[in-house]
Amino acid sequence: MSVMAIVGAQWGDEGKGKLIDELASRTDYVVRYQGGANAGHRVVAGGSEFAFHLVPAGILHENVTCVIGNGVVVDPRGLLAEMEDLRKLGVDLRRLCISERAHVVMPYHFVLDRLEEECRGVEKIGTVMRGIGPAYVDKYSRVGIRMADLLDVDQLRAKLVSVLAQKNRMITQIYGQQPLSLEEIHTEYVGYAQQLRPYVTDTEALLQKALKERKSILLEGAQGALLDVDFGTYPFVTSSSTVAGNASTGAGLPPRSIQQVLGVYKAYITRVGSGPMPTELFNGEGAALREVGHEFGTTTGRPRRCGWFDAVVGRFVARLNGFDSMAIMKLDVLDGMPTIKICTSYRMGDKRLTTPPATPTEMAACEPVYEEWPGWMTSTSNAAIWDDLPEKARAYLQRIEELLETPLAMVSVGPGRGQTIHLRDVEV
Ligand code: IMP
What we know:
Blueprint: E1 3-8, H1 16-24, E2 29-32, E3 41-45, E4 48-52, E5 65-68, E6 73-74, H2 76-88, E7 96-99, E8 103-104, H3 107-120, H4 132-141, H5 147-150, H6 153-174, H7 182-196, E9 200-201, H8 203-212, E10 217-220, H9 245-251, E11 260-266, E12 269-271, H10 284-292, E13 305-307, E14 309-310, H11 311-321, E15 325-329, E16 339-348, E17 351-353, H12 360-364, E18 367-374, H13 391-404, E19 408-412, E20 420-422
Parallel strand pairs: 1-10, 1-11, 2-5, 2-10, 5-7, 6-8, 7-9, 11-15, 14-16, 15-19
Antiparallel strand pairs: 3-4, 12-13, 16-17, 16-18, 19-20
Helix pairs in contact: 3-4, 3-6
């Protein structure tokens, strides 16, 4: 039995989907605990590629129960489309459960996400336009609609009557747009409720029972710790808490039940959307990382900003989450790089920083201080064990391990199942 949280350790897109799919073969439950359909967890299996937005990435394993936890915000329309795609591929969805406490992303959340972004102009966050921020705002303003409300036709109407009046005032009076129709939304969402009803349950009780029965549970983080609403590069962050501390709240499990926290890093770094990124590359090296690493958003298709591995934010995140171990993904993307750099500190004016500053202005003023490592200039994608890796690749990984003060447990050298080197046994 074990409960393990898997946390993205950069700005998202670290390759958590592949890792969760791989570890799920040895687990009983996979649970999403925060975020929503802004996530895009990619899994390559059996010659097909799957992109998960809300369904936990463990669903491809037939013995795994997959849970969308209370901390997630659920877009029913998107979820049903994702479920339909999976069904067509023969995936059995009877193993999917959705928390009755999870909040619902409503049509006005999508509209407001777009209008608020347009209004921010050059200061836009670059959200993925899935209504995530506005849905979390409503949750904390205590006007959110939860899955349990969605299933109750009258309760849904009563909630909509008061919330929609307020949202329509914003949409029409502040943004000068057309109001949304209560009847249309009600009819549409009652339809979704009928389809989702069999999946909605008390997932907290389900997981607590699993805990008692000594089952193993993987808590699947979405986005990354640098997008965390408290510790990320605020305000250029997502609206949920993406760090390990939130895994228990978002799943409904006691904090002390989580025995292990695994951090997932890419061998370099990427970011989508706005906000400071000290090691961003604007030259051919950045373009090469993007091309070789296929660094285009799973949810939006936007090109990702690419840069060298940043050990300053890397160590900050490792400490914040208390990583027991880490996985480094996409090492093979660096195979053709003659020289590889690691940022070990920042220069800000005449100061040397080893932790990231709190404000985006200071962070944007930070210049990376690099050490250079010779590239290995050979393919690593067939490496099955540590000793198969070129010596220079091992040296690079060991240096990251040293800088982050976190033991390396896994190295991924390609998108496929099996293209992962296991260094330490991560017990699931
Ligand atoms: P939101 O989560 O759509 O509100 O977007 C806020 C910021 O988080 C934007 O910079 C997005 O690009 C970024 N973001 C949200 N979800 C992901 C993700 O799954 N991977 C990478 N970046 C993300």
